[in-house]
Specification:
Blueprint: E1 10-13, E2 16-19, H1 26-32, H2 36-65, H3 73-80, H4 86-129, H5 153-172, H6 174-178, H7 182-189, H8 201-208, H9 215-241, H10 251-275
Helix pairs in contact: 2-3, 5-8, 5-10, 7-9, 9-10
């Protein structure tokens, strides 16, 4: 590298400085035996020029960041284009991160508030759709079927009697039961829940089939009972949603149809009991 000894003004390019044509090389300096104080003066001028440039750069930067509006052209350019300033970019990034954290915190708070409210609403709706009268005839000694166990004949007879009692109670207290809605009627039919004696009545009747002398008549009577339960269940189900239909039909009409099927089902159960000599 060639060392330039400055004797004239310097031309600055960014942070580097080079000499005009007035400088001399080390070899020329050695031949001419330039005094040492000249070397020191030249180096001092270069250092002072570099210090002045650095001071001006810092002044412009500080003047542009104070927000007073009296900065240089560089400071004005920085204000007009914040993305050209690394400090502004970092500040925007920090603000974006802070906003995202606030949004996530608000989302978690909403979830924590909505979940208990939704649960409370479900419990309220459940309590409205299941009035106390729905449990009036649900007290019986029957046991729910167990998976993988065969229903014995004595158990089937007891279950059939319990089913007959549930149907009779439903008929005797029909108006009161209907006040609880269509699902309340379906509970007594054994199609909703497991508390009614009619729950699993088809399995009970199949177990009792071995007691029948006339299999054909027994099978037809069993099918009649199942049909009546299905028809009554369908009518009670329609009574739930009929109020939202465009062609409005009073729920009482469907409750009336269900009551007719309940009466037919009771008669068919009595006929089936006679076929196997079962006392109710």
């Amino acid at each position: 590298m060639v060392l330039i000894i400055m004797s004239l003004d310097v031309i600055k390019f960014g942070r580097c400085s080079v000499a005009r044509n007035g400088g001399m090389t080390v070899a020329a300096f050695m031949q001419q035996q330039v005094p040492r104080h000249a070397i020191c003066n030249g180096i001092g001028r270069v250092q002072r020029a570099a210090n002045v440039k650095l001071s001006l750069t810092n002044a412009r930067s500080n003047d542009g960041d104070d927000g007073s509006g009296t900065g240089t052209h560089a400071a004005m350019h920085t204000r007009s284009n914040p993305l050209s300033n690394p400090l502004c970019i970092n500040e925007e990034a920090r603000r974006g991160t802070s906003i995202r954290r606030q949004d996530e915190s608000m989302s978690r708070r909403r979830s924590m508030l909505v979940a208990p409210l939704a649960l409370a609403g479900m419990m309220t709706v459940s309590s409205w759709s299941t009035p106390q009268s729905a449990n009036a005839a649900m007290k019986n000694t029957q046991t729910v079927f167990k998976v993988g166990t065969q229903l014995t004949l004595p158990e089937a007879k007891d279950r059939f009697r319990e089913g007959r009692k549930s149907m009779q109670y439903l008929l005797d207290n029909y108006d009161e039961v209907c006040e609880g809605g269509g699902d309340n009627v379906r509970r007594y039919l054994g199609t909703v829940g497991t508390s009614s004696g009619m729950f699993g009545i088809s399995k009970v009747m199949k177990t009792l089939m071995e007691e029948a002398d006339d299999i054909v008549e027994y099978t037809e009577t069993m099918a009649e009972i199942e049909k009546c339960v299905q028809q009554a269940d369908g009518s009670a189900y329609m009574a739930i949603f009929v109020t939202t239909s465009t062609s409005y039909t009073p729920p009482a009409k469907y409750f009336g149809d269900a009551k007719i099927e309940i009466k037919r089902g009771i008669k068919a159960m009595d006929d089936l009991a006679k076929l196997i000599n079962l006392e109710l």
